[in-house]
Amino acid sequence: MTPDHIALIQQWGYWLMFGAAIIEGETFLVLGGVAAAAGMLDLGYIILLSIVGCIIHDSFFFYLGRFLGPKILARKPNWQPKVARIMMLLEKYDFWLILAFRFAYGLRTVIPFALGITRISNFKFFIFDLIGAIIWVLIFILGGYYFGNAIQLILHKLSLTHLAREHWLISTLVLFAVIFAIIYMVMRILKRRNMKKVQSDNKSES
Known about the structure:
Helices cover 84% and strands 0% of the residues. By secondary structure, it is mostly helical. The protein has one domain (3-205). It starts with a helix and ends with a helix.
């Protein structure tokens, strides 16, 4: 990788991490951790920017539900069953739902919206959402950071560091593919577990 490419990553990498957190893109957070392990980005800065991005995303949908929830549900009737389900989950799990909803694949936008419709206070949502954002960001960025350190150690042991730097584009694409595949598999497993849990809860209720 040339100095120009490194400078480009250092210039735009922080904005990319901020935007990735807003759209809840785990893959980019992991890659940001890998870039931090390579010394191209500051680990503390990308963690802070990612947490802020998460809070902006969640707060937007929370207050959207708080001020415009009934009107939006009237226009989007397909959201109503999801919102009703989230209300039941909130009664059952309380603040744990706020802490863990980022790991509920497919519901990460609907849950803060639905929470905004409830009577939960703004302060309570902010505090537990902040804790959940910190946990989520640390898992993926630090995971990428230590993964990047492990890769560098392996390349160094195999004397492949120079080769990886020389063919940095191919190395980056392979790394991206591996990280994406791992995250995709984890998300599929979590989604299946959530679906099985919903089905078991529906059976118990009936």
